[in-house]
């Protein structure tokens, strides 16, 4: 197990390492009560209400079997698998695909794809993108997975309607091409799925969108791609069991949450997620939703108004060393940088000889790209630390199903703990709902007439401010 254990190094958050802007024992003492509250609240609420995601690694044996069986059927029958969903119903599948499949999956041959279908996630309603999809895939070869927890999100329902219509117009039976993933008891998709006879997987009640990767939302697409979902759940369970009590010295989620909470209190309003691996590029996107949507709130738990949160920013090492790092090194002291490092990349590329006459290039020859990317991460860590900027590093021994499950669970736990320290509800998203409801009103959904009037009355635009 230890060879798969992810680690946290937070030296560069501490005053005795980075100097005056780092944290001291006094900083930890000052938040002791909030940490204590967070741990107790977590322990009390785990498995209940919107903390159903804390049981997913224990309670899905049966559904996992069904997913594996269905995935096998899909793999045998279809050349393309398309996820129709948005937000928490898309970002998990995207990031797991990127992490565990060939980085040019759709372009390589079937053997290199491990016999998995080509994979697309359509998480927008840009008409040009829908058109691009429909002119790229052959409908008869495609399985569509419509994913929506609420069962009514305009974007996903629109995509569903377009696809169903296209299938029918092509003389195909939608029932044979559509799988739905949604709530069993609420929303419209479940009613539609029953009426149309679609194969359906259920999103458990206590699992919100951004906490849903380890339920059928993420597990079905992953299994279709040939990913070992049981190992992902094992990894999540391993992290979970290391992170559910305060006394546990391995509780790195609680430690990371506490560090971030102290940082927020000191005015570090930005959380930069900086993985040094293309495979983890979209983990940064997934994290941005998790962190931003969970912690950005305008009410404390008791309803008292507030405005809290920490703005997540995604970056990629080394690519963004050439765009964002200048700001992180020399700009304001308002960020916490999270490096994500990989001990062992799954491939090795040697930098060949061939530049002997040019010593300033030749020094690279004989090294590997593995050494170069690692050196660049260390160098960047050195530069931001020297500038006194708060940063810490999460190490993955290797990117695989187990470590990815660990990593995702780590971030989910860290988010929950930090939300409780901030005294907000990390599991709701009224700000998102407001936008969804306004869209319904603008497009005339029955029941949203009052909202439509509110919008009409509240939307004021002056010509003088338009150019
Ligand atoms: O985290 C959340 O709850 C949201 O971001 C949702 O995932 C997103 O709005 C999509 O919602 P749904 O899955 O209900 O279509």
Topology readout:
Layout: E1 7-9, H1 15-18, H2 25-30, H3 32-45, H4 61-77, E2 80-84, H5 91-100, E3 118-122, H6 127-134, E4 142-148, H7 154-169, E5 178-182, H8 189-196, E6 199-202, H9 216-224, H10 229-242, H11 252-265, E7 270-275, H12 281-295, E8 297-299, E9 305-308, E10 311-314, H13 325-330, E11 335-342, H14 359-362, H15 369-386, E12 391-396, H16 401-421, H17 430-442, H18 449-458
The chain binds 5-phosphoarabinonic acid (PA5).
The site of 5-phosphoarabinonic acid has 15 residues, from loops.
Characterise this structure.
With 467 residues, the chain is an alpha/beta fold. Helices cover 44% and strands 13% of the residues. It has helices at 15-18, 25-30, 32-45, 61-77, 91-100, 127-134, 154-169, 189-196, 216-224, 229-242, 252-265, 281-295, 325-330, 359-362, 369-386, 401-421, 430-442, 449-458, and strands spanning 7-9, 80-84, 118-122, 142-148, 178-182, 199-202, 270-275, 297-299, 305-308, 311-314, 335-342, 391-396. Strands 1-12-11-7-10 form a five-stranded mixed sheet, with helices on both faces. Strands 3-2-4-5-6 form a five-stranded parallel sheet, with helices on both faces. It has a two-stranded antiparallel sheet with strand order 8-9. Helix 4 (61-77) runs parallel beside helix 9 (216-224), helix 5 (91-100) packs antiparallel against helix 12 (281-295) and helix 11 (252-265) crosses helix 16 (401-421). The longest helix has 21 residues, at 401-421. 5-phosphoarabinonic acid (PA5) is lined by residues 86-89, 148-150, 153, 156, 208-210, 293, 429, 432.
């Amino acid at each position: 197990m230890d060879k798969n254990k992810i680690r946290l190094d937070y030296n560069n958050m501490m005053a005795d390492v980075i100097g005056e802007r780092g944290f001291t024992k006094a900083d930890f003492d000052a938040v002791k009560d909030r940490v204590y509250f967070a741990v107790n609240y977590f322990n009390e609420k785990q498995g209940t209400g919107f903390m159903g995601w804390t049981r997913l690694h224990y309670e899905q044996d049966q559904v996992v079997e069904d997913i594996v069986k269905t995935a096998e059927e899909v793999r045998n029958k279809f050349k393309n698998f398309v996820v129709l969903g948005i937000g928490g119903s898309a970002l998990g599948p995207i990031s797991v695909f990127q992490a565990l499949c060939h980085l040019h999956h759709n372009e390589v041959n079937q053997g290199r794809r491990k016999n998995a279908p080509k994979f697309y996630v359509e998480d927008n309603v840009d008409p040009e993108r829908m058109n691009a999809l429909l002119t790229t895939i052959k409908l008869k070869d495609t399985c569509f997975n419509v994913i929506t927890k609420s069962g009514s999100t305009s974007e996903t329902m629109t995509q569903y309607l377009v696809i169903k219509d296209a299938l029918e117009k092509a003389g195909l039976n939608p029932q044979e091409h559509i799988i739905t993933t949604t709530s069993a008891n609420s929303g419209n998709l479940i009613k539609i799925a029953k009426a149309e006879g679609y194969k359906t997987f259920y999103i458990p009640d206590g699992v919100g969108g951004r906490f849903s990767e380890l339920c059928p939302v993420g597990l079905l697409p992953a299994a279709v791609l040939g990913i070992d979902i049981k190992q992902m759940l094992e990894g999540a369970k391993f992290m979970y069991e290391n992170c559910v009590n305060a006394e546990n010295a391995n509780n790195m989620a609680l430690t990371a949450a506490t560090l971030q909470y102290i940082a927020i209190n000191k005015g570090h309003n930005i959380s930069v997620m900086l993985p040094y691996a293309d495979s983890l590029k979209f983990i940064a996107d997934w994290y941005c939703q998790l962190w931003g949507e969970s912690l950005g709130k305008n009410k404390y738990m008791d309803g008292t108004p507030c405005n809290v949160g920490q703005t997540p920013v995604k970056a990629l090492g080394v690519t963004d060393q050439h765009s964002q790092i200048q700001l992180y090194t020399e700009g304001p002291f308002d960020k916490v940088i999270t490096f994500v490092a990989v001990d062992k990349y799954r491939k090795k590329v040697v930098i060949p000889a061939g530049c002997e006459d040019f010593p300033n290039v030749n020094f690279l020859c004989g090294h590997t790209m593995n050494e170069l990317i690692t050196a660049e991460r260390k160098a960047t860590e050195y530069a931001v630390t020297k500038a006194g900027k708060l940063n810490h590093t999460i190490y993955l021994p290797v990117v695989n199903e187990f470590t990815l499950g660990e990593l995702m669970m780590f971030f989910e736990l860290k988010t929950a703990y930090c939300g409780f320290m901030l005294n907000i509800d990390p599991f709701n998203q009224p700000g998102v709902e407001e936008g969804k409801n306004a869209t319904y009103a603008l497009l005339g959904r029955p029941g949203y007439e009052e909202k439509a009037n509110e919008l009409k009355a509240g939307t004021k635009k002056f010509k003088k401010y338009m150019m």
